[in-house]
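Re: your question from the hallway

Yes, I did run it. Sequences:
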Amino acid sequence: METNEMYLEFDSKSTNEAFARVAVAAFAAQLDPTLEEIADIKTAVSEAVTNAIIHGYDNKEGKIKIRCQVKEDTIHIEIKDEGVGIADIEKAKEPLYTTRPEWERSGMGFTFMETFMDYLHVESLVGEGTLIVMDKQIGTQKN
Amino acid sequence: MIQRKVINSFFEVMNQCLVIRITEDLDHHRVMELREEADTLITKERIRNIIFDFDGVTFMDSSGIGMIMGRYKQVIFTGGKVGVAGVSNGVDRIFRLSGLYKIIEKYDTVKEAVESL
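Structure:
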């Protein structure tokens, strides 16, 4: 089974949100995605990276790591931070729930990740960091 | 007749409407660039309504939704409204998913929005 993998590490700065979106989309291009599938991937990556910057590192310095793997028609994306971690993952995934309403966070990040990707898995340990795992199968109609 | 005051390349006041020109991807980074000045102008120019001009914008994530909701909460106190103009298909999709069209109005152009609001 042929796979293709890339690994990216960058500073937790908001200016890198666009870079992360475009980098992952560029890597996914080998699967010949539609414009909508690219938009889906960019949005999901944007949500996860923004969470790492704002929540994980609390807008302070840190490194965000992205690993992508393409296998058959699926893109597998892992976004990791070594920040504060999520105390209650199920609560965090609840639509509209946010720990930062004062920052005007909509609380829709995880909802968008779940909507636009086929698979979402969150692992986190308070004080150690968070890992977001997302898969998307390209080229199949999703109802 | 529309009274027009150009603040800079991203902000304009038309009648009592603040027009915010997004111009690039509306993500957390862009929100941070726009929000403070928007809030300053809302107070200083005694803004009633806000129009977000999405002309040329092809990307928006939930940070954009948060920014729009935040401004909506501000103007609604004085009976104001929020509208969006020049929305591309990709951005429209995010608006529809978020349910924001229940509380904001979509217009084809900024001119149309200012005339309606």
